Structures are given as C-alpha cells and as structure tokens.
Amino acid sequence: MGFLSEYKAVSRLLKQKQQVVFYAESRHYLQYFMPLLDDLLGKKVQVCYITSDPSDKLLKSAPDGLNVVYAKWMLGFLFPRLQADVMIMTMPDLGHFLYKRSPGVGTYIYMFHAAVSTHQQYRRDAFVNYDCIFCTGEYQQHEIRKAEELYGHPVKEIVPYGYPLFKELATTIPVAGEKPVILIAPSWFSGCIFETCIEELLQELAVLPYTIILRSHPEYEKRNKRGFDRIRKLVKTYHNMFIDDLPDVTERLSKSDILIADRSGIAFEFAIGTGKPVIFIETVLKETNKDWRELNIEPLENSLRPELGVILQPLELNTLANKLKEAESLRAGFAAKMKIVKEKHFYNAESSYQKGLDYVLA
Hints:
The protein is α/β, with parallel strands linked by helices.
C-alpha cells in the first residue's frame, strides 16, 4: 500500500459524512465486528470499514455495499477530521495519543475484543473519551460506573451487548487431528509467557505426544518484533510445533484440545466458548492500570481463573505432564459447568446483541 494511494483514499473519505464507520487496527479485530457489520449492511446502512492492516481480507474481497479504506500513516490526520454518525472501535485510549476524537462524529462506541474486566488490564482512563460502551456482562458495567463515580469520568451510555464470539465458538464444529492439539496463546505484557518461560515450556512439551501451536497476540507482534522473531526461530527447532497465523481465533480454538495461557482474555473464549479446560501459567498480573485496586472490585479474569482450568507455577514446569492429565480429567461435565458460568456473568448473546444493533440503528 503506497502513501499516495492511501492519501487519495483518505481524501475521498473525508469529503462526505458517513453513517457508520468501523476501525480495525489489524485483521485480527475484524471477527469482533463481522456480526454487526453484516447486519448493518443487510439493513442498507452506509458502512465504511477502515483498516490499518494490508493483509486484511476485506481489502481483497468485501461484501456488497461496504466501503473499505486502508489507512495507516495518515490516521493522525484522518481521525480528527472524520465525519460520521457513529464510529465503532475495539481500540482503547481514544483521544490520549495519536488518534483524536473528531467533532464531526456523533457517537463513539467501544466494543470489547476480550471479555476481561475494565480496570486492571486497561489504563485508568482507557474509555473516558467514548460515548457508549458495549459491555460483555454486568461486571463491566459495574466497574465503569464505579470508575465514573470515583474519578469523575463523564457518564457514558452502556449497552448490554454480550460477547458474540461465545456463540460463534459454540456453533463451530471441532475437527479432530492425528494428535491432540495444545494451543499456547499468551497476552502481550512484559510478564507474558513469551517473555518469561517459553523456552522451558517448549522443552517440556517437545517430548509429549501433542501437536503444539503458538498464537501470539497481535499487539505482541506489533510492539515486540524482535521478541516475536526469537519465538519463530525457537519454534523451528522442534518438529511438532508451529506458529498460528490465522486472523480468526475461532477456527484455531475449535481445533485445539487444551489451551495454555497466562493472563490473556483468550482463556474465556476457550473455556466458555468451546467448553474445554485451560492450563494457566501463573505469571505476574497484567496490571496496565496500577491503581485498579482503588475500585475495590476483583477483576473477573482473576476471580474466575480457578474455575476455568488448572494453574501451573512457572517454576514447576517439570510437572506439566501431570497438569495436562489433570486438565484432561476435567473434560467430563466441563462444558455444562461453563454454560452456568456464562449465564451467571455474561449477557445473553441473542437478546443483548439485538440491543447493540438497535442502538447503532437508532
């Protein structure tokens, strides 16, 4: 994608007001938009999709009626000049760094790409410049309201949107391979598996009868290219391991038997969406907001951790084989248990999704 072609596309975009604009930092975030995006197109809403990923599949093949624009180097110019009724993003910290609010946008909506709490893994003011939050469960609504009260944040509209990816995962047909598959999918903070114990973990897994797949968080690849190159080289030294480059997480999760994670929200997607247990490496907390305890609310990703699988200490990786057997022993009845967890903590996918669609259409 050349700068001149990007400049021309952005200039055309800025010449007229849009109805609904989606912005995706990378191709990985498209999956969170697609249900809503498709339904809006079906209702003949004018939709524009802006992506900063040259590998985004919509740049090659887009649904009828969708205006797809590639913009990366001109985002700082584009954002404060955009005109739209609604803009929907999964990107926190709107207005704090390069990407500013535009007076020409009526409503900014934040949609979560992880079902974690709002106050530990995100900056304290991460959502303050959004007008509306599509919450995955009542826990997020409680956290946001508490932060508004405590810090004087502007009161936002909250839509009980749920987490549509759970439904998509539940309806995906799993595909069995020759060997059971272990998926390693860390978060992207400094204390993640890739930065602390990946060498030792792979050494333990290499002698076990599994296919091992490593899936990095897109932010890890973007922010730590040297670290990701190191991971790629390490994986090539083993015959039963490879890197997952699929943009859609649902396909990979459906084909995996056990997930190994640290503090990543993918643990919710795997355990609740597929009904299979997680092995958690007990890394340090992912504390993007060091003041999260001021809300006096335990983050859901911390409190639910023991219910979603088994926990393994980083200094006890030599017991991994036993932990894998323990996780496999949880399979009986685990899906039913996760259904109860989902109903308790997350909004109903069907009715809540409709509320989100209605909000955008209003």
